[in-house]
Amino acid sequence: MTTKDNIDAPDIKTSIIFWTAVALSVVQLTVPIFLHLLDLQLRAIHVGIGLSLAVLVFPFSKRLS
Predict the structure, then answer these.
(1) What DSSP character marks residue 59?
(2) Between residues 62 and 23, which one has the greater pLDDT?
(3) Closest CA to 52 of 31, 32, 27
(4) Rounded Cα–Cα distance for residues 31 and 42 (Å)
(5) Is the predicted pLDDT of residue 45 greater than 60, yes or no?
(6) Could you give the C-alpha distances from 9 to 19, 26, 32, 56, in angstroms and in order?
(7) H, E, C per residue of 15-26
(8) Beta carbons within 8 Å of 9's beta carbon, 6+ residues apart
(9) Contacts of 28 (CB under 8 A, 6+ apart)
(10) Residue 20: CA atoms inside 13 Å, Cβ hemisphere, count?
(11) Average pLDDT of the segment spanning 31-40
(12) pLDDT greater than 80 at residue 9
């Protein structure tokens, strides 16, 4: 496999990270407008998705990366 093949076809982990980041952005923009949740609930959603992204980007084990 060449370097060009890696650039053309992202792996599944990269796709999951990208779409989770897009979902976090959409949630942050739309939930406060359409749903009237408490600030604590909005922060919990934000922190939960953010921590999920952090664990995907920086895994605890080197063999998972």
Answers:
(1) -
(2) 23
(3) 27
(4) 8
(5) yes
(6) 15, 25, 35, 19
(7) HHHHHHHHHHHH
(8) none
(9) 46
(10) 19
(11) 86
(12) no
Residue 64: count other Cβ atoms within 10 Å of its Cβ: 9
Q: Which two tokens stand for residue 3?
A: 């370097």
Question: How would you label 14-45 residue by residue, b for 16+ Cβ within 10 Å and e otherwise?
Answer: eeebeebeeebeeeeeeeeeeeeeeeeeeeeb
Tokens 């890696």: give the residue. Answer: 6
The one-letter amino acid at 8: D
- Is the sign of the CA dihedral 51, 57, 58, 63 positive or negative? positive
What is the average per-residue pLDDT within 36-60? 86
Residue the block writes with tokens 């990270």: 17
Cβ-contact 44, 28 below 8 angstroms: no
Tokens of 26: 């959409």
Per the model's pLDDT, the better-predicted residue between 62 and 17 turns out to be 17
Helix (H) and strand (E) counts in the chain: 3, 0
